[in-house]
Amino acid sequence: MKEPLPISIDTSSEISEDEISLLDVWRVIWKRRKFISLFVIAFVFFTITWSLFMKNIYQSKAVIIPVVAKDSGGTGGTLSALASQFGSMPGISLPGSASATEIVSLLDSNILREKVVERYRLMPILFYEQWNSQKKEWIRDQGVISTLRRWLSNLVKAVGPSDPKAAHSNNEEGIPQLWDALRLLDHIVQIDNNVKENTITLTVDYEDPEIAAKLVGYFLDTLTMHMSAEAKRVALINRTYLEQQLQVTADPLLRQKIYALMAQQVETAMMAEVKENFAFKVIDPPKVPDRKIKPKRALMVVLSFFVALFVGVLAAFFMEYLERVRNSSQVKESEKVRGDGQ
């Protein structure tokens, strides 16, 4: 029997096709090199110019940790048991230590942020571009832009405001309202709750580094005052209720426990008056940042170069494709004319 001849695969044609395709790619790039270069240079120059007009943003932050109340001896268990007995009665609630969830919820709440804005008069600071510091008044919009903005505002109101905060804004055009400040704070204030380490990080990003640090301090001070006032209010309500129960209670043992609960309410009110480390402790206080966090102009320029290069190459191939289609259509028309002439 004859042995089968080995099958030889000619890969020279595949290699040549790859070489031709790569050569065609390089020819297209080289042919359109001026267009690609100009496009990349223009795009990078635009990015550099745009980044220079962007405002520097600085970040200031503070790290706090909730204060956990400690029970002394068996008093805590006795008071907790008595509190469970009075829990079925309306009007009493024993104030406990603030949890991280409660603190985060307060920092995110509009109630606290409204107090910060009103207490420290932050409207001219947050909207300094619309505030005339010399005349101490707001700069009202005038001209075509103001008319267009008023027309769009009326159109939105006619259709129905998509944002519930916008429905309560005043009718004064060009003057920022409290809801505008709350929306702005939503963008510049961030709260991060680290459940593992039981820490809360309050971060403020702003154009002025000193104002960024002050805003963090304003939030912490207002949070302390709010939680202190709330604890005193609850302690007063509880004490009033316990005094009423004391008048109608004849059992000596129960009266003694009520006195212990009243003593705890007095202690809570006194601790709330101190305010220092009442509900949380500041681990890392806010400091004035010395470096901006954004924009990262060098990274923007590098990314713009590669993006422009990629888009420029794609545009060059598209232009080459259009040129070939146009040339092929011209060749077909010329051949058709020659055929008609013959």
Automatic annotation (TrEMBL):
Keyword presence, Phosphoprotein: no
Broad class of where this protein is predominantly found: membrane
Topology versus the membrane: Multi-pass membrane protein
Chain ranges of the Polysaccharide chain length determinant N-terminal domain: 18-118
Keyword Signal: no
Keyword terms of this UniProt record: Cell membrane, Kinase, Membrane, Transferase, Transmembrane, Transmembrane helix
Domain (Tyrosine-protein kinase G-rich) ranges: 244-318
Regions crossing the membrane: 35-53, 298-319
Cellular component annotations (GO), alphabetically ordered: plasma membrane
Pfam families per record: GNVR, Wzz
Subcellular location: Cell membrane
Gene Ontology terms, MF aspect: protein tyrosine kinase activity
Listed name of the protein: G-rich domain on putative tyrosine kinase
